[in-house]
Specification:
heterodimer, A: Rossmann fold, 3 domains, 6-stranded mixed β-sheet, B: 13 helices, about 75% helix
Chain lengths: ~500, ~350
């Protein structure tokens, strides 16, 4: 084996009574890609935060190239050549790519900025690792995948030799993820060492040389990727076998929600172009596409937070104007937003407040402007119980829930009301296997009960597993629907690339 | 070193940290007092005597606390919803001058039970209008209300200057720029006879409880908190953002305007340009001290007024420069803010 560049030795960390990391030890060799696999809450992100100096370990130490890394000092970690690519990017959307990359590298009081040199270095790095981006583009204008490239480039720009990626594919499409893995392998070939955090088995098998499995804050196994299987890893990760639920045959009902050539224009850009679909009761209609192709506009439009610029929307057979949020809630449309921490829930508010906020004006939760707390808390407690929300009760601050439990809360407040329509945007994004299975099972249950589900997703497996019919979204246009039984992953891939026949229906 | 938010705050901590802060402030100002050649321990005693030693000083402290409670509530209400109202001072003055104008011109003959409520309302309305402008600019053109509300303070004070040297000038004031007085019948009754303490104090305390109730129990309180914490989340949940923030602005501006009205009707009866020794700005400090909690505002305003009045008494009694009193006040506010911070966060290394 080649030289060891990084050693994590017996690291433990507790938050209150909760031991998040328990005597974790692992190593990383030069030119190696190690996957840190584990469910949400297994302690992966905490471990990496300790490594990067965001947290101080209670016990244990970290050695980079044999030298002890001082604990709790991000700057020391950067100096030692550790770069971190966060799950939620730490970039400024109003700066250009180049400015973002340079931020923090120059002395605050230096009079001039070495823009020219930085540009050359950035270009060289981009070329060397195949990470093409325009240095002068405003970051906010880039797609999520491109923003991630910038984040990686930023780490490389700081001369990182050890790169940590926290759930790098959580925000990417399959295609983007494959490109990313190509890049990672190229970086490893050129002598960089990488750790990537993941809970997705496919990508761990595809990209890693070695897999370290975390469960409940402990290292439970370590395998060479070539010598293990997805099944074994899944079992190690969750401790028991899980299977994602798959839809069964089921008669669909009447159309309940229709869009006829609906366009949405925001700031002069057409986000949705003459999109049409027809959603029936008791079916799941999957909208698949690479992120940034109009999904956000479609979801916001149907969630009542965005106005259309042309076209018609028919709800239960009647043409309606623009939906308001109040309309959607009142007419039985459940909504799961794409970004649960930004739109789906307000972290600083209690679980019960998030459970009832969108229905607070209904007489059962408020009378003459006064909140009926006991009714609201009772409602929230039902959701917590029925939807297995763990990590807190109705009075817990929502921020303290893990992503999966927050999603169960959001799903619960919608499904508890037996909606006739459910708009689900990326409902399982960023969740661990156990939570994904739970969310999928709930969606299928709703379908069986007659709910019409519009599933907007970038995950092929998810769409194939759940949807009865599938439409692709490309550049704001929707393809004609195809029956899920008649397509395979390859055909869907072609559709997501925009290859569909205009006349097909 | 980093700061972590405390998820659970032990009661002892909440009680102890402010006491420690006061001790630290006194210790620091003790250095200055010693340097000025005065006995330090006696100086401390004088602060207490100055603020509460007699009926006169105690009522004076409470009188001073009254406008601070109202401007403090104004800031707390706005900041909770992330409306950065820095314009309390201007709203205070506009509320005061509106009260003096309506009281001296329109309602000079009206009985108290009619004129007092109407005058309080006119003061509140004037304050509201002065905050609605910056908020509308923010909603319509994304203009930062920190800047606009702050700058409107100066506009408001100049408008007041103009009015009391022009149309509202009191001809009996020997040429001093001073507004005409409201009728005696419109003055707030005294809470304690032969003192300056008036019913405005009661109004302020009651309003603190009202605001607390509104924030914690009403739909509006919940929506305005959501709007402040996460505009995107609030919009997704169907909270009408613009309308909610406008209501918050009305409440906040109204409270600051009411502070001006109460000060006119309770203490002076007329307006001069030194009616407020910075009540609007101190209200921001009071709100921060209180952690934006309406009931905390009552305590924070009392504390601030105690330091103002007590330190003043100290410097007079011991013949030490008055600036030491100012420094003591400033130090106690700073240490209190630090203490409030550490009650909410812990240090991690």
């Amino acid at each position: 084996m080649t030289e060891t560049v990084l050693e994590i030795d017996g690291v433990s960390k507790s938050f209150g009574d909760n031991k998040v990391n328990d005597a974790i030890s692992m190593t990383l060799a030069r030119g190696e890609i190690v996957a840190l696999l584990g469910e949400n809450g297994a302690g992966k992100t905490t471990l990496m935060s300790i490594l990067f100096g965001h947290y101080t370990p209670d016990e244990g130490c970290i050695r980079v190239a044999g030298a002890n890394l001082p604990a709790g000092r991000p700057r020391a970690a950067i100096h030692a050549g550790i770069g971190m690519v966060h799950q939620h990017f730490s970039l400024a959307p109003n700066l250009t790519v180049l400015e973002n990359v340079m931020t923090g590298t120059e002395k605050l009081w230096s009079l001039r900025s070495e823009t020219g040199r930085a540009r050359t270095k950035l270009k060289a790095l981009a070329e060397r690792f195949g990470l093409a981006v325009d240095p002068d583009a405003r970051l906010g204008d880039l797609s999520v995948g491109e923003q991630q490239r910038v984040e990686i480039l930023k780490a490389l720009y700081n001369d990182a030799r050890i790169l940590i990626l926290d759930e790098p594919t959580a925000v990417l499409t399959n295609l983007e993820a494959e490109t990313l893995f190509g890049t990672l392998k190229e970086m490893a070939r050129q002598g960089l060492s990488l750790i990537f955090i993941s809970h997705k088995l496919d990508e761990v098998m595809a990209a890693a040389d070695r897999v370290v499995v975390l469960r409940g804050g402990k290292v439970v196994a370590e395998r060479r990727a070539a010598e293990t299987s997805k099944a074994e890893l899944a079992e190690l990760m969750v401790g028991h076998r899980v299977a994602r639920p798959i839809r069964d045959a089921h008669e669909r009902g009447e159309p309940v929600l229709e869009a006829a050539a609906v366009s949405v224009r925001i700031d002069g850009v057409d986000r949705l172009k003459e999109a049409s679909f027809r959603l029936h009761a008791g079916e799941v209609l999957g909208i698949i596409g690479v992120s940034g192709n109009g999904q956000a506009a479609l979801a916001s439009l149907l969630s009542g937070t965005l106005a259309r610029s042309s076209g018609d929307i028919l709800l239960y057979g009647e043409a309606i104007g623009d939906l308001s949020v109040a309309d959607t809630v009142a007419s039985g449309i459940g909504r799961i937003p794409e970004d649960r921490t930004r739109e789906g829930a307000i972290g600083e508010m209690a679980v019960w407040e998030n459970a009832v906020l969108e229905r607070i004006d209904e007489p059962r939760f408020s009378r003459r402007g006064l909140v009926d707390r006991s009714a609201a808390i009772a409602f929230a407690e039902t959701i917590v119980r029925d939807f297995d929300v763990r990590g807190g009760g109705a009075r817990t601050r929502t921020r303290l829930l893990s992503g999966g439990n927050m999603q169960k809360l959001i799903l619960g407040r919608n499904l508890a009301e037996r909606p006739r329509i459910l708009i689900a945007a990326q409902p399982a994004r960023g969740l661990d296997e156990g939570a994904v299975a739970a969310v999928h099972a709930r969606i299928l249950e709703a379908r069986k009960a007659g709910t019409a589900v519009l599933l907007i997703s970038e995950d092929l497996d998810e769409v194939i597993g759940l949807a009865d019919r599938i439409q692709a979204i490309v550049g704001g246009r929707l393809s004609p629907p195809v029956s899920a039984d008649e397509v395979d992953a390859r055909a869907l891939g072609l559709m997501m690339a925009g290859a569909w026949k205009k006349e097909a229906a | 070193m980093r700061f972590e938010r405390r998820e659970h705050r032990p009661l002892a901590l909440i009680v102890l940290t402010p006491l420690l802060a006061v001790a630290a402030a006194l210790a620091l100002s003790g250095l200055l007092i010693a340097a000025a050649g005065a006995p330090v321990l006696e100086a401390y005693w004088r602060i207490l005597v100055g603020a509460f030693g007699s009926r006169l000083s105690a009522t004076e402290t409470l009188t001073r606390a009254t406008p601070l409670m109202l401007t403090g509530l104004a800031a707390a209400v706005a900041f909770r919803a992330r409306v950065w109202n820095i314009g309390g001072e201007g709203q205070f003055y506009l509320g005061a001058i509106a009260t003096a104008a309506v009281g001296s011109q329109l309602l000079s003959g009206a009985p108290g039970y009619l004129s007092i409520p109407l005058l309080l309302i006119s003061g509140a309305l004037a304050g509201m209008i002065l905050l609605i402008v910056p908020l509308w600019l923010r909603l319509r053109f994304s203009v930062d209300e920190v800047v606009t509300s702050l700058l409107l303070n100066f506009v408001a004070v100049l408008v007041v200057s103009m009015l009391i040297d022009g149309p509202l000038k009191d001809p009996l004031a020997f040429g001093w720029p001073q507004s005409q007085s409201v009728a005696d019948a419109a003055m707030l009754p005294k809470l304690v006879a032969r003192s300056r303490l008036h019913w405005g104090f009661g109004i302020a305390v009651v309003l603190a409880f009202v605001v607390h109730f509104v924030q914690s129990r009403t739909v509006f309180g919940m929506k305005s908190r959501a709007a402040g914490l996460s505009p995107d989340g609030a919009v997704f949940a169907g909270v009408p953002l613009a309308r909610t923030l406008l209501l918050v602005a009305c409440l906040s501006g109204g409270l600051a305007g009411l502070a001006g009205a109460v000060e006119v009707l309770g203490v002076k009866g007329y307006v001069t340009t030194d009616l407020s020794p910075g009540f609007g700005y101190s209200g921001i400090v009071v709100a921060m001290l209180a952690g934006l909690h309406p009931l905390g505002v009552v305590l924070a305003a009392l504390f601030t007024a105690t330091m103002f009045v007590g330190a003043d008494g100290m410097s007079r009694a011991l013949k030490i420069p008055t600036y030491i009193a100012d420094v003591t006040v400033a130090l106690s506010l700073i240490t209190m803010l630090v203490a409030v911070f550490f009650a909410q966060y812990r240090i991690r290394r």
